[in-house]
Amino acid sequence: MAKPGGRGRPPTSVDIARAAGTSQATVSRALNGGRVAAATRDRILAISRELGYTPNAAARSMVTSRTGLVGVVVSDLTNPFYPEFLEEIAAAVAARGQHMLLQNAGSVELLLQQRVDGIVFTAAVEGSAEVADLAARRFPVVLANRVVDAGCDSVEGDHPAGAAAVVDHLAELGHRRIAVLAGLPGASTSARRLDGIGRRLAERGLPPPDVRETGFDYDRAVDAATDLLTAAAPPTAIVGLNDQVAFAVLNAAAALGVAVPGELSVAGFDDVRQAAWPTLGLTTVRQPLAAMAARSVALLNERIDEPGLPPRHEVLPADLIVRRTTGPVRT
């Protein structure tokens, strides 16, 4: 395709519209993250790249009152779950012609100063005044992975179903003494997974789990697992409420010479990439990261377009992935 600028003139949205066979308004929506059919957006973005189109951010902001910037807030980049989730969010944002600005916890004031069009929170905890304040001001906010009671849009995995699947798997392997290393107080991921495990055990007529708090902290999880495994009647299975905690259990067991899965079964949640490594082979509940990211970004853009929409809450399927760290109770 010949570049239409001519005489050194840079291509414009009018040139893209002419090449794509669409209106300039459609091109504008596609380039600014507005509502456009996926196939149309992909064609427009491909043509814009081929023509060498570079949007003028300042001019676009003045015309549309938008910057094309999406803020994303995380809390713990040492947890491998978050870098993987951020990859998926960045891809979903870029697919809409937008750009992601990342903030690692703390105040969102810097994001607001950059005039982001909306914010995705990936690690909100109950009682977050910042989330509640933004939602009350009708600033576009979406909660991804963790949810709080703040009247805003949210997307999460099906934690109760995942928890029930873990309990069913362990119970079918003959486990009765099950411990749980819980996460951060106020985190919906920890609360819903723990509640789901407790409910399923009760439904099966099994004893409640031995719960130890770790705050999703690796070192605390190692200490908790060590304490459990050196008790007079140690558990035959330990469930970490995320994979990082489950990895801590595996390392504590190795240090004590406890065989996995011969003497101890271990399971986690999230299914980060390391979980599938042959040396780990962690049984875990897979979070649908790509789907969560895509839906979170879609809901955010719908909220940007229509601030008066009622709050939406979406729950996506979570699947148990059985690997080598779980096995039958030794008799």
Description:
This protein has 331 residues and is α/β, with parallel strands linked by helices. The chain has three domains: 52 residues, lambda repressor-like DNA-binding domains (434 Repressor (Amino-terminal Domain), Orthogonal Bundle), CATH 1.10.260.40; 116 residues, 3-Layer(aba) Sandwich (Rossmann fold); 129 residues, Response regulator (Rossmann fold), CATH 3.40.50. 42% of the residues lie in helices and 17% in strands. It is built from twelve helices and twelve strands. The strands form two sheets. A six-stranded parallel β-sheet has the order 2-1-3-4-5-11, with helices on both faces. The protein has a six-stranded mixed β-sheet with strand order 7-6-8-9-10-12, with helices on both faces. α11 links the parallel β8 and β9. The longest helix has 17 residues. The termini are far apart.
Keyword list:
single chain; 331 residues; alpha/beta; 434 Repressor (Amino-terminal Domain); Rossmann fold; 3 domains; 6-stranded parallel sheet; 6-stranded mixed sheet; 12 helices; elongated; DNA-binding transcription factor activity; transcription
Strand order in the largest sheet: 2-1-3-4-5-11
Q: What is the CATH architecture descriptor of the largest domain?
A: 3-Layer(aba) Sandwich
What structural category characterises the helix and strand content? alpha/beta
The residue ranges in which pLDDT falls below 50 over 5 or more consecutive positions are none
Q: Tally the helices: what do you get?
A: 12
Q: Name the CATH superfamily assignment of the largest domain.
A: Response regulator
Q: Any idea of the CATH class of the largest domain?
A: Alpha Beta
CATH topological fold name of the largest domain:
Rossmann fold
Radius of gyration: 24 Å
- Percentage of residues in strands: 15-25%
Q: How many beta strands in the DSSP annotation?
A: 12
Helix percent reads: 40-55%
Give the tally of structural domains.
3
Return the string of H and E elements. Answer: HHHHEHEHEHEEHEHEHEHEEHEE
Keywords: DNA-binding, Transcription, Transcription regulation
Pfam families: LacI, Peripla_BP_3
GO molecular function: DNA-binding transcription factor activity; transcription cis-regulatory region binding
Domain HTH lacI-type: 11-64
